[in-house]
C-alpha cells in the first residue's frame, strides 16, 4: 500500500528530521563514545560548579548526609554455629576489630581519615566526578593490620588512553585494561615522571603506573550497557546551574545599579563647554535625601534600571526545579524553600527522595564496603587480629565469618506519632518483626536488646520494683487488685498486650 510507508514514517514525531530538529542527533552513540567525548569536560565543569555554585555545594552535602550520614554504613556480623544459632562471641569480636580498623590511623594509608570519612569522600566523588577509585594497599606500608586505603583522583586514569589490542586478546579502554571478555585486569594511572616510580612506563609521551585490578576499588553508577567509567550525577543539571548563576549575577549587578540611582548630565542646546575644553565634565556627589543646584543649561538624566522585577522569583524557581529533577532530589530540599508546601506534599516528596538515597546506599555497600571488608577479613584473620577470650579466630573458617549485613543510615519518622502506631500495628499483625522495625530506624537489633538488658539489670540492681521497670519499658501493666474483678486469676502487676 503506497501510504503505509508515509504513515509509518510519521509514527514517531521524535524521529522526524525537519527544520525544527535539524540539530538533534540521529546517530546513537555507544557508552564508550559518550564517555570519551564528554567525561573530561563534564568533570571539569562539575568541579568548577562545586567550588562556586551554592546549589551544587548543597547537592553534594545532601549526598554526603543522606547516603553516608553521621556514623557511616555500619557492619553487623552474622556468623552462625553449625546448629544455626548466631555465634555471638565471634560476631562481637569481628565487629570490635572492624571498628578498631575503621579509625583514623589504621584504615587510611595517610593516617588522617576514618572509614566514615572515606565513605563520604567516595560519595562526593561519585556525585561530582561520576566515580571514585580507591587502592587497597598491603604490606609494610599498610601498618599493623596489613591493609590500608589510598584514595585516588579518577582523573589520573586518563579517559583518552586506549589500546585496541593487547597480547591474549585484551585491550585498554579509558585507562582501564580488560581481558577479552571485558573483565578489568589493571588500571593505568599517570605519574609525575617515569623516574619517580620504578614501576612506571612511558607511552604516548606520558608516564603510567599499572596497578592490578584486584588492588583497585572502582565505583560508579552505570547508566548504559558496556559503560566502563562513571559520569557526574550533576551532568544534566550543569548547564542550568551555569546559566542560572550568570542570570543571578546579572540581576544582582542590575539591582545594585538600580539602588545607586546613578545617571548623567545633559547640556541644553546653546549651553555647555566647547569640545576642546579639558574641564568640561561635571561631577556631583550624591547623598541620601539631598538635591543640589545644577549650573544653568544642565539637566540631570537618571539611570533607573527596573530589573530584577516580579518574574525573577518564578523563573528562578522553574530553573531550580529542573535542576532538582536532574539530580533526583526534591526542589524543597535543594532550594531550602518551604514556602507554599503542605504536610502531605512534603511528606510524599521526602519519601520518594529517601527511596533514591536507599538505592545509592546499596550501591555504596556493593561496590565499596563489601570488597573492602573481604580484603580486610582475610588479612585480619591471618594476622590474628580478631580475638575471642584471648585466642584469635581461625583463618580456615573464613567462609563462616564472611556472613555480615550492612546497616546504612536511616531517617527519623516524618509523623512520629502516626508512624510509630503503624509500626506497632504491623508488628502485632505479624507484618514486620521487631528486628526489622529497629533496622528501619538505622540501628542494630542486637545492640538495642543488649542495652535494654543492661538497663533492666541496672534498675533491678538499684532496687527498683519490676512493676515500675515494666512501666519504664512501655508495657501495659494491670492496676493492683484488678484480678478480683472480671480478670480473675491475674497476678498483681501482670502485663497486658499493648493496645492498638
From TrEMBL:
GO terms for biological process: virion assembly. It comes from the Bacteria. Pfam families: Phage_portal_2 (PF05136). Residues 479-500 are annotated as: Disordered. Transmembrane segments: none annotated. GO terms for molecular function: structural molecule activity. NCBIfam families: portal_lambda. This is Phage portal protein. The lineage of its organism: Bacteria, Pseudomonadati, Pseudomonadota, Alphaproteobacteria, Rhodobacterales.
